[in-house]
């Protein structure tokens, strides 16, 4: 089997899982975090820097790469792995999340979603089949099915209709896919309705997907609602397949979701916040532009061994941001990605020794969060 999920240990007190997802481009230790390479680059970082953070799998966006440079050019350039110069696993999303967040959707039907490109204004008719074709041209290791994402809050009938359509579209994606070296992951939808989520998960679980995702969350609901939905969904998914929570989130959200049986994550937060001068550290959040760091010669995070923290002071980083130098956002993105990988590595070690609960208590204390 080209893809295999090896489950090493399930938490004694929680639903947390320690596993390895084997792909044609190597293993991904889980729980694991994927940095986001929206436009064929993890913003502001070279691929060696991304690798230095400990990331094993990265994410590419089908919506963005499908529009520019377009699937044919990506294929001509040797596929995403060659473009990125990344020899590890790559996951591509289906484009659904981006398309459904556009205002310029002209038509959603059972057949497809029709929208206008934000780049050249052309009309794109995105069917589930076309989403798979683009992802096959991109050559990712994991392709996500096209799903119908509704903005929340929404009337229940609308959420249910989108959920049911997502199941039919998932089946069409599976039917149309032709690459044996590309895993297909289904996406559970159903808004904030536990019953719809359970129903969706159960139906998708009967199909032969290599992995399952929980989608449509982190869209403005409270963390508690997100945890509730995630916790209700994972028990319905096959134990022997990886589970991916899409687009989440803060370090605490990752840990709370690991407790609920999630194996994979992606989020723009570490890079986006890094570009804005916001660092995640074991001393809590650091806003590097603050005047308090002006003459501070200490590192961003003294417990961190990333390039940023071993070479540079808070005072210097603050100066870079104040001077508008591009190195500042780059160095903070590097640190934040490194930090996310450390949090995940710590979680993996804690699961193995059944100490995840203690690990989370300690992290919350460091982050200054109520227990
Ligand atoms: Zn660091």
TrEMBL record:
Swiss-Prot/TrEMBL cofactor(s) = Zn(2+)
Give positions of region: RNA binding. Answer: 247-253, 271-275
Keyword list, A-Z: Glycosyltransferase, Metal-binding, Queuosine biosynthesis, Transferase, tRNA processing, Zinc
Q: Does the keyword tRNA processing apply?
A: yes
The UniProt annotation puts the region (Disordered) at 1-28
Q: What is catalyzed by this enzyme?
A: 7-aminomethyl-7-carbaguanine + guanosine(34) in tRNA = 7-aminomethyl-7-carbaguanosine(34) in tRNA + guanine
> Which residues of the sequence carry a binding annotation for Zn(2+)?
304, 306, 309, 335
Signal sequence interval, chain numbering = none
The record's listing under SUPFAM superfamilies reads: tRNA-guanine transglycosylase (SSF51713)
- Give the first-level EC class, as a single word: transferase
The cofactor note reads: Binds 1 zinc ion per subunit.
GO MF, one term, reads: glycosyltransferase activity
Which InterPro entries does this one have? ArchSynthase1/Queuine_TRR, TGT, TGT-like_sf, tRNA_ribo_trans-like
Question: Which residues make up the binding site for substrate?
Answer: 93-97, 147, 189, 216
Catalytic residues per the record? Answer: 93 (proton acceptor), 266 (nucleophile)
**Pathway in which this enzyme or protein is active:** tRNA modification; tRNA-queuosine biosynthesis
- The EC designation for this entry is 2.4.2.29
Q: What does this protein do?
A: Catalyzes the base-exchange of a guanine (G) residue with the queuine precursor 7-aminomethyl-7-deazaguanine (PreQ1) at position 34 (anticodon wobble position) in tRNAs with GU(N) anticodons (tRNA-Asp, -Asn, -His and -Tyr). Catalysis occurs through a double-displacement mechanism. The nucleophile active site attacks the C1' of nucleotide 34 to detach the guanine base from the RNA, forming a covalent enzyme-RNA intermediate. The proton acceptor active site deprotonates the incoming PreQ1, allowing a nucleophilic attack on the C1' of the ribose to form the product.
Q: How does it assemble?
A: Homodimer. Within each dimer, one monomer is responsible for RNA recognition and catalysis, while the other monomer binds to the replacement base PreQ1.
Q: State the family named in the UniProt similarity comment for this chain.
A: Belongs to the queuine tRNA-ribosyltransferase family.
Name under which the protein is recorded = Queuine tRNA-ribosyltransferase
